[in-house]
What does this fold into?
Amino acid sequence: MKAIVQDAYGPADVLELRDVDRPSISDDEVLVEVRAAGVDPGVWILMTGRPYLMRVMGFGLRRPKVPVRGRDVAGVVAAVGARVTRFRPGQEVYGTCESGSFAEYASAPQGRLAPKPAGLSFEQAAAVPVSGMTALQSVRDCGRVRPGQRVMVIGASGGVGSFAVQIATASGARVTGVCGAAKSDLVRSLGAEDVIDYARDEIDRDGARYDVVIDTAGNRPLSLLRRALTPRGTLVIVGGGHARYPLSGGFERQLRAPLVSMFAGQRLRGLTARERAEDLEELGRLIESGAVTPVIDRAYPLAEASDAIHHLSEGHPAGKVVVTL
Ligand SMILES: NC(=O)c1ccc[n+]([C@@H]2O[C@H](COP(=O)([O-])OP(=O)(O)OC[C@H]3O[C@@H](n4cnc5c(N)ncnc54)[C@H](OP(=O)(O)O)[C@@H]3O)[C@@H](O)[C@H]2O)c1
It folds into this structure.
């Protein structure tokens, strides 16, 4: 099969379109014929091997252990392992895969897939898994957003942020999005009632008024983030600005947050998103109800996957970038 493969960490030109073997599947896995694959900052991290912290976390010290890039997948079930009960060949699915989704076929554990939501194209479905699950867990689990609360989403026009704005709005919250001026209309169209242009104003412009702040961008210090929160508010640190911190990716904010939280009235949390079928199914329900619609910035053919990653790495996508097959 054709796949986007790398033999070493580095910039986008380490990626090559090559013929490789189809992935084999174990008893609990599903072989998916890939129709579209999502691109997210995790793909860039695995391509470059930066921040270096990820190498010692088991992804490969000198080169990536899995040579094919891509995690989000949408496609058609080609074969199932002996113990797979939830899927059958021919079914349209979406989710995350272990073997790399920038390829004609990908293997995924059945617990990381769900039926593709009705009405979504493969392109749209591939945009959902990593970013959508991260946003859902930020709003629902970490943020515990309730109707009527004021929620700020920093990086509101990006992959995670565009889902977080819609999910918080669907939860009944009043959302303020932080984004560049060019994305203000997009973020309002997703449900935000107010927008802060980060080039003009800082996030504490309106004082301590937010019950929940979800931070996906910019790597602002904890002290500044806390100034936008009410005295009992909740901060959810998703990520942001990792390219500026080659060793740690800025991860220390995530580590410090719960420590500071022990001495503050505010709840400060770092999110580590989990990939699970139940959350894909919940996202599917939100999508089918019309509450959430994936925003596609650009789609690239498989042979141009390195351009897709380069575009994302510039840091200003309007929603999601996808690769199509
Ligand atoms: N914790 C986890 O488990 C987890 C899971 C998934 C992702 N992440 C991390 O979350 C972060 C966001 O991911 P993503 O997929 O949403 O990235 P993305 O699609 O690249 O979006 C980033 C957004 O940040 C905005 N931005 C850039 N500079 C900003 C600033 N100074 N202030 C406010 N907004 C700014 C950009 O909007 P403009 O164009 O308007 O500038 C862009 O749309 C990444 O660091 C990623 O690694 C963490």
